[in-house]
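Hi everyone,

Forwarding the result from last night's run.
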Amino acid sequence: MTPALTHIALQVGDLEASVAFYREFCGMHLSHQRSDDGGRVAWIAEPGQDDAFVFVLIERPGHRPQADDDFGHLGFALQSRRAVDEIAARAGERLAWPPREHPFPTGYLCGLRDPDGNIVEFSYGQPLKPEHLAT
């Protein structure tokens, strides 16, 4: 049996701020929320994907932001270059990487910092299927 990726867990300093960011910029919604011994936890998902893949946000006040030289990021695909530009224009001070074209297969992208300083990439023209990557 092949394992299935079901979630990514991120520690966040402010649960409400993080849920609001991923709702506004990524179109995700709150799928589940609870409090347990370790604190508050929220699951967020893309519409219609609640049973397939979620981000698990675990509130940990005092969480440190991602370092400036850390290229780790979450990637979201958009439908056009214009959509990338629109996200960047709305980002304000959250903009970490202004929109720019990168060589194939990276494509056109921008990056925003979420409330905890994690980079969230928005790209267009970044193929994932192996047959589209052949050069």
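The chain has a mean pLDDT of 90.

Cheers,
N.
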